[in-house]
Amino acid sequence: MSDVRRFAVFGGVYNNFLSLEATLNDARALGCEAIYCLGDMGGFGPQPDRVFPLLRDVPDLFVMQGNYDHSIGNRLEDCACGYTDPRDNYYAQISYDYTLANTADAHKDWLRDLPTEFRHTWAGQRVLMAHGSPRQVNEFLWESMCPDAFLEHLLKSYEADVLFVTHTGIPWKRELEGGRQVINVGAIGRPANNGRTSVDYALVEVDAQGVRVDFREVEYDHEALAALMREEELPEPFVETILTGWWTTCLEVMPARERAAGVY
Amino acid sequence: MIDLNLAIDRPPEGPAPELELRHLDTLWLQVTGTLCNLACRHCFISCGPKNESHPFMELEEVRRAVETAAAMGVKEFYFTGGEPFMHPQIREMIALTLEHGPLSILTNGVLIDEELAAWLAETFHNARYNFDVRVSLDGTTPEENDAIRGRHTFEKILGGAVRLHEAGLNPVFTVTTCHAELAESAGRQRFFDLLAERGITRPRLKFLAPFKIGREERRGGAYEDFERLSEGMLDEEARASLQCSSCRMVTAKGVYPCPILIEEEGARMGDTLDDAMGPIKLDHPACYTCFVEGVTCRT
Ligand code: SF4
Ligand code: SF4
Ligand SMILES: [Fe+2]
After folding, report:
1. Of ligand 2's atoms, which has the minimum distance to the CA of residue B291?
2. Contacts of A213 (CB under 8 A, 6+ apart)
3. Which residue among A13, A94, A143, B118 is the one 20 to 30 A from B2 at the CA level?
């Protein structure tokens, strides 16, 4: 029996029940004792109700509310993304309306009542998990937009040594002075605008030395997902993202730096 | 739609709201003061070639403000003017700021020649943090834009933007919605079409409402008496969404709450950032525009 404890942290399911299943299988096969989902169950992918059997009433899984879950759970009219590009807006609204219409009432209630943060102490370090940022559910923490000193400020104000967030869809991590760290776990529901069809989650190892975080790449049957998205008549640019690994919409919220790494 | 004007045409009762600074997320720097190579008719601080009411900032002033804000955990920096590229040391200012965090620079684009565009693109690629250039354009035709920004500026602005794009940058276009229909989706589509024609196929656009002060007051008319904020009008969410709950503006003449009020009587908060961490009074009519239009600096 080793004295390394393992945990998994992921976010951004976006209706992708196939990558969700693959992620959970991978984390369990690696012996993760607990798995944390940082929210945003809906949007983008097909057949929203198929993620819930994988997420609800599972003893090793802890699920948090994201901004999308808040909107769907409270039956709001849109995801309040506020795009100014008419094309982004158009597609975002299609997938929001689709998700709202195809999520069962009982699941909406469950989304509405989810917690909004998790706290733990691992190896003596104060661990905080939030959706966007600890101070605002829909704040984007992009790698190129977060000065070290700003992250230090967040950690200090929210009394944490290790912070996990999601919401942007692109993973990154940063080590700060004194062993403190911030990790954006990215999203498992949509590739990270890197030309790979796989997705990533954060695998955490905790031992006497501290908390180590690595990204773990997960392959899943993305072609099956794409086929189902076409069957459901979801926008073709979304399907293209699943098949190519490049974002085609919602690029407006992405900083120029991250965007320059993509093809659009 | 409810017509607010029917219900309230008198000044609201009660004192103007006070607003705390939650955290300094955004530091604005008025690097070229009120000096500009254009004199746009909607400029809310009446900038122009002869307006020296706010002079250029010195390099060391910029460094001091940037370092002070960085130590406070600031999230992002904005350079504005006037026209920032008129400053002889603008490149040093950009470089030192990008050491500490992401920077957006607001320009009218006119001075961006090939050499500058290449330098900006290289800076973008080498910087640790994000670097954005925002170009102001106020119409999709020369007639529309030039009526506001001045004769022949349409092609000069687009020329600068296209050079940026060819050098490998994707500038953000900011549009002041003096022509109200530009904010509608058909108006927006015209921008996308225009920029696509010039080879900018994935443009980034930001639409801003005009502030009825400075030269814009003479162009579009001043504020009415009812256009004021009072304590009861702002809930927590509205407070948090006002940019002055998380920003300050540094100029050569001291620190102000925001970029909009630097020429307004009584808005100056002190000499240094440390003097400007207290609450502000939202007693200015421009505050009404921020509240009604949800003005933010975010891209
Ligand atoms: S709006 Fe901008 S470009 Fe026009 S005069 Fe004012 S500062 Fe100069
Ligand atoms: S003009 Fe706008 S940003 Fe400036 S103090 Fe008033 S509300 Fe705040
Ligand atoms: Fe989110």
Report:
1. 7
2. A162, A173, A181, A183, A202, A203, A204, A205
3. A94
Structure tokens at B208: 């801003």
pLDDT tens digits along A146-186: 999 999 999 999 999 999 999 999 999 999 998 899 999 99
**Calpha distance B291→A30 (Å, rounded):** 51
| Domains delineated in chain B | 24-293 (3.20.20.70)
Smallest CA separation from ligand 2 atom 7, residue:
B287
Name the pairing type of β-strands B204-208 and B172-176. Answer: parallel
DSSP, collapsed to helix, strand or coil, labels residue A193 as: coil
- CA distances to A23, A61, A63, A156, A188 from A54, rounded to whole Å, are 11, 9, 11, 35, 14
Task: Enumerate residue ranges in chain B where pLDDT < 70.
Answer: 1-11, 180, 182-183, 295-299
What's the complex ipTM? 0.91
**B156 CA → ligand 1 middle, Å:** 14
Domains of chain A: 5-259 (3.60.21.10)
Write the DSSP string, A21-45: HHHHHHHHHTT-SEEEE-S---SSS
User: Which contiguous run of DSSP H or E holds residue A223?
Assistant: helix A222-231
Q: Which residues of B touch A254 (CB under 8 A)?
A: none
- Of the candidates A169, A210, A226, the residue with the CA atom closest to the CA atom of residue A10: A169
Give the separation between CA A5 and CA B1, rounded to whole angstroms: 57
B75 contacts on A by Cβ (under 8 Å): 145-147, 150
CA distance B244 to B276: 11
* B83 close to B37: Cβ distance less than 8 angstroms: yes
